[in-house]
Design brief:
220 residues
Length: 220
């Protein structure tokens, strides 16, 4: 039995290595150019997992194979792009990792499994929690330990953030807002920045302690 694993960022590649330790039937695809109908047809995977993917998936693939997306929100809330950022900037600290079968609509498919996910701390801390959640979810799915259910509730849809949206127009926000804005855009995302004259200050990380905001940055 073969499983396709479509991902490209560092955190999801660590997840892939973790999965290989328990089952060596996972095949990695890192580029959309390799995700073709002919390639998938040749492998005939039981499941195709998308924990970390930024490209449109051919309809022939989603229509004919069990394509599982892992999305960081309590669906149907926060469908669409940049779910981490769109939740953090709105003050949300508790959400879910949701695995669902992909369909024609954006993040509208039936839910397979969910696990609680904290959005506190640095992006790298959140990634570690995502790895654990995704690992547990994927291993359950390939073991057949899941039940499928329809999404319920009022959906909300958000667009993927663009690099230009990482700009802070000024610093006249609350320290909590600035902290969340900077930390949600830590690497590998387009970092938060502010323009001062001919210079640009790029915020690499932030820490909020005792109502004091500390940050590391680079002046360009």
């Amino acid at each position: 039995m073969v499983y396709l694993f479509c991902a490209y960022r560092d955190w999801s590649l660590k997840l892939y290595e973790k999965l290989l330790d328990v089952d060596d039937n996972f095949v990695l695809i890192k580029s959309p150019k390799k995700l073709t109908n002919s390639f998938v047809k040749k492998l005939n995977p039981e499941f195709i997992f998308f924990p970390d993917w930024s490209w449109i998936i051919p309809k022939k693939i989603t229509d004919n194979y069990k394509c599982v997306c892992l999305h960081e929100s309590n669906l149907p809330k926060f469908r669409g792009g940049s779910p981490l950022q769109n939740q953090i900037i709105r003050g949300i600290t508790k959400t879910k990792t949701t695995a669902f079968f992909m369909s024609d609509g954006i993040d509208e498919g039936d839910i397979i499994l969910q696990k609680n996910l904290s959005l506190k701390g640095k992006i790298e801390d959140i990634f570690l929690r995502m790895i654990e959640n995704d690992f547990k979810i994927i291993t359950k799915i390939i073991s057949g330990k899941y039940t499928v259910k329809k999404q319920k509730g009022m959906p909300t849809l958000f667009k993927r953030r663009k690099p230009k949206e990482s700009e802070l127009q000024n610093l006249n926000f609350s320290k909590k807002y600035l902290y969340d804005f900077i930390r949600m855009l830590e690497d590998p995302y387009p970092n938060a920045f502010i323009k001062l004259g001919k210079r640009k200050i790029i915020f690499k990380s932030a820490n909020l302690k005792d109502n004091k905001l500390f940050f590391q940055g680079v002046i360009e």
